[in-house]
Amino acid sequence: MWLTDQQKIGVGLVSFGTFFLFLGVLLFFDAALLALGNVLFTGGITLLIGPQKTFYFFARKQKIRGTACFFAGMLLVFMKWTFIGMIIEAIGFLNLFGDFFPVILNFLRQLPFIGNLLSLPGIREVLDKLAGSRQSAV
């Protein structure tokens, strides 16, 4: 799969945004790191899939509640209400990107070390239930 230079920058921004969000939560909801992570993540998504597709993704009728929660959470983080903002943003994130979790889980199961860990009997059932994966009858 070939990525354009713009998409490569988008992948980098999404990665750094995720890192800063994780670091901001790890450092007791540091407002500056969380705000930076939000900006980088949102900008990276825009560069990764394009502005028009990003708008259509966030403006879909089925995702409007998730979009409202996600951006309201971002606004609360910018206003330094970090804990409440991250809770509301997490709800919006799950509503927006929850459809991708089974795909991500299947991708992670293809990786050498992580795949073996995720395929262990106890972990497999829990992750399948959380991601909403269905087992085939075959």
UniProtKB/TrEMBL annotation:
GO cellular component: COPII-coated ER to Golgi transport vesicle; cytosol; endoplasmic reticulum; Golgi cis cisterna; Golgi membrane
Subcellular location: Golgi apparatus membrane
Topology of the protein relative to the lipid bilayer: Multi-pass membrane protein
Pfam family for this entry, one: Got1
Segments traversing the membrane: 9-29, 35-58, 70-94
Keywords: Golgi apparatus, Membrane, Transmembrane, Transmembrane helix
GO biological process per UniProt: endoplasmic reticulum to Golgi vesicle-mediated transport; retrograde transport, endosome to Golgi
Family, as annotated: Belongs to the GOT1 family.
PANTHER family assigned to the protein according to its UniProt record, in alphabetical order: CGI-141-RELATED/LIPASE CONTAINING PROTEIN, GOLGI TRANSPORT PROTEIN 1-RELATED
Identification of the protein by name: Putative GOT1-membrane protein required for ER to Golgi transport
Source organism per UniProt: Tilletiaria anomala (strain ATCC 24038 / CBS 436.72 / UBC 951)
